[in-house]
Amino acid sequence: MTAEVLTAPPDATVQSLAEQMRDRNVGSVVLVDSGGRPVGMVTDRDLTVDVLASGLGPDTAVEGCATAPVVTGEHDMELEEAAALMVSHRIRRLPVMDGDALVGIVTLDDIAVRTGDIEIAQQMTADVARAALPDFYFHQRGG
Questions:
Q1: pTM for this one?
Q2: Which of 40, 50, 54, 82 could potentially form a cystine with 68 if both were Cys, beta carbons 3.0 to 4.6 Å apart?
Q3: Residues of the chain with CATH 3.10.580.10
Q4: Residue 55 half-sphere exposure, CB side, CA atoms within 13 Å?
Q5: Would you list the DSSP string of 8-47?
Q6: Does domain 1-70 match CATH 2.40.50.100?
Q7: Fold of 71-143
Q8: What percent of the chain has pLDDT over 70?
């Protein structure tokens, strides 16, 4: 788990968010309400596909390209439980809560490092991708 999570309010602009992501070298930001509770998730891919490809301007609010609601895990979850939650919800990033407080984020990369087993990480990535994409995609490409 990564303890330092980049957060932003839903009304932040896509440009400010992209700059923060670049400066912190992260691929996602958790949008939080005034109480610090997660209300959305924005990834670098969201900015590319939903903002740039749609021709939206840099002053666009990030809430328009966020994934919501946010699936979260608990700080005392076992690694296998977090991994199963990620696969079942087709997500690559899982914000971690301790009660109402956001205390970290777990990614597929974190799981690969923690387990030390590249095959588990590859299988999880394949499971998430298969769950997120239409069956025909893999059928046509032999995956």
A1: 0.83
A2: 40
A3: 1-70, 71-143
A4: 0
A5: E-TTSBHHHHHHHHHHHT-SEEEEE-TTS-EEEEEEHHHI
A6: no
A7: CBS-domain (3.10.580)
A8: 88
